[in-house]
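Retry 2 of 3 after timeout on previous attempt. Resubmitting C-alpha cells to design endpoint.
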C-alpha cells in the first residue's frame, strides 16, 4: 500500500482509514493493525506538527508491505532533517508533574517497532520500521 499525505493533520484520519483497509485486505491480526495505527498516527502527526512547523516541507509518503512475519513500513518526508534515533529516551521514572509535555512519541514508536532505521537521502527523511505479526 502506498499513500501520499499532505501537510495537514486531517490527513492522519485518511491514513488511518487506509491502514485499516490494508489490514483487512492482508488479513492481518487486530493486534498488528492496532500497532500500525498507533505508530503511524504518532509518526505522521509528529512530522506534520514539528517537521512542517517551519513552513518547509509539504508531503509524507507512506509505504506498507506485508512480509513474512510482519509488516514493513517506510515513510518519506521533505521536512528539515531530523533523526529520531538520536533522540534520547525519556526518563519515565520522573513524576508526571516534573516531566516536560510531549516527548513520548518516539519512545512509543520504538516500543512497538522491532526494527527502526533513519537516513537522509535527496533532501528527504526516510524512516523504516518493521512490526512483527
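Retry 2 succeeded. Sequence:
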Amino acid at each position: 500500500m502506498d499513500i501520499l499525505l499532505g501537510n495537514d493533520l486531517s490527513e492522519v484520519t485518511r491514513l488511518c482509514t487506509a491502514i485499516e483497509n490494508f489490514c483487512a485486505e492482508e488479513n492481518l491480526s487486530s493486534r498488528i493493525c492496532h500497532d500500525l495505527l498507533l505508530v503511524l498516527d504518532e509518526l505522521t502527526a509528529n512530522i506534520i506538527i514539528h517537521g512542517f512547523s517551519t513552513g518547509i516541507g509539504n508531503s509524507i509518503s507512506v509505504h506498507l508491505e506485508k512480509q513474512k512475519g510482519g509488516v514493513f513500513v517506510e515513510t518519506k518526508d521533505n521536512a528539515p532533517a531530523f533523526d529520531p534515533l538520536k533522540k534520547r529516551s525519556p526518563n519515565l521514572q520522573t513524576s508526571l508533574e516534573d516531566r516536560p509535555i510531549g516527548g513520548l512519541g518516539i519512545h512509543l514508536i520504538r516500543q512497538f517497532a522491532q526494527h527502526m532505521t533513519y537516513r537522509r537521502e535527496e533532501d528527504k527523511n526516510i524512516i523504516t520500521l518493521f512490526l512483527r505479526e
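Attempt log closed. The chain has one domain: 2-132.
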